[in-house]
Amino acid sequence: MSMLQVLRPALPILAGAAIMLTISMGLRQSLGIFLQPLTKDIAISVSSFTLAIAVQNLAWGFLQPVAGALTVRWGYRPIMLVGAALYIIGLALMAVAQGFLAIMIGAGVLIGASMACTGPAIAMAVAARSVSTAVRSTVLGIVSAAGSLGALMAAPIGQILSEGHGWRIGIAGFVVMSLIMLPMAWIAGRTDKQPTPTTANEIGDTSAKAAAITAFSNASFVVMTCAYFVCGMQLIFITTHLPSYLAICGMDPMLSAQTLGVIGGFNVLGSLFFGWAGGRWSKQVLLGLIYVSRSIVLAWYFMAPPTTTGTLVFGALMGFLWLGVGPLMQGAIVEMFGLKWQAMIGGLAFMNHQLGSFLGAYGGGLIYDTLGSYTLAWQIGVSIGLTAGIVQIAFALLRPPQQPLLATP
Q1: Residue 57 CB burial class (10 angstroms; 0-12, 13-18, ≥19)
Q2: Are 82 and 27 in contact (CB under 8 A)?
């Protein structure tokens, strides 16, 4: 039986989840293109804008396990619909902002809360529930690949609108694109009518507190969660600060949008590859290899002045290594703990990812405002990335994943 035949009953749900994810991730990853014109127009500092992005990441991270736990009680559809509505409101508030407060609430709090309801953890939990074990890792890679197709479209569209009509019209264009999330969330919500498949290590019926205790009793999960910090730090540093870095270096403003688009395009290939690879080799070793490889690419790029070709090659390499982490993390969590609490446990791991994102966004802006350069910021990112990747690989090779120790409610 072909892959298409296996997936046919789940195709509407998978398409809804994938399109919702590609819009939510794509628009968010492209907000950095508005950094320079927005901050100059409403007279706020670079670090103020990046503080809002940092708060977005914290809100996303700390609300992710809450959203995941609520899907067990209320179902996925209402959570995703609320998230889509919050995204639209957040972007609209940004488009009419006259100062820092509106940017903080719109780009920070509202979009952050929305991402907890529409981002990778929820989208991939929906996908994982809808397919069999045999194709699950590959399907998670496909859905993860969709996460950057939005950036492939959104970044160039936003840049063109911003250059031609101003940054407010650019963000208004994002508002229009975000409306697509509402019907997609509704369609993906059909998964609520499906019974939850069971797995060998399924935690099953228990409380959220007991599920969390079970997760953190697993040493492999703890190491994987700690290493996840570097993923958020590196990726948010790039999406938030690369446009500003290229502008400082006197490069064509369109280059940043083109590079974000290249990242999106090559992420499709990377996510598909790592989704496929995760079904064949150790997911945790592959995670460590991604962190090490990203760090090497970052060091290579920032050690020399940027060129057009070098920047696009950097975008291609980083894109390949971008969201491949998603299917590997979610697949490993399903293997360890099952499907019922996947979204919540994935959210617990994601909190650490978002602490890294806070450091990448706000820390990068603070270092730039203080030193007038991004040199120290990328050096920190490379050092921490190499350390986390090596520890992740060593632990995965020396200690196989533990069976879950079930906690009592």
Answers
A1: buried
A2: no
Residue labelled with tokens 């697949």:
331
Q: Which residues contact 317 (CB under 8 A, 6 or more apart)?
A: 266, 297
Tokens at residue 105, please? 């609430």
* Model confidence pTM above 0.85: no
**Chain centre distance of CA 34:** 19
Tens digits of residue pLDDT in 141-168: 777 777 667 767 787 788 888 888 888 9
Token digits of residue 270: 């990377």
Summarised one tens digit per residue, pLDDT across range 99-149 is 889 999 998 999 999 999 998 888 888 887 777 776 777 777 777 777 667
CA-based radius of gyration for the chain: 20
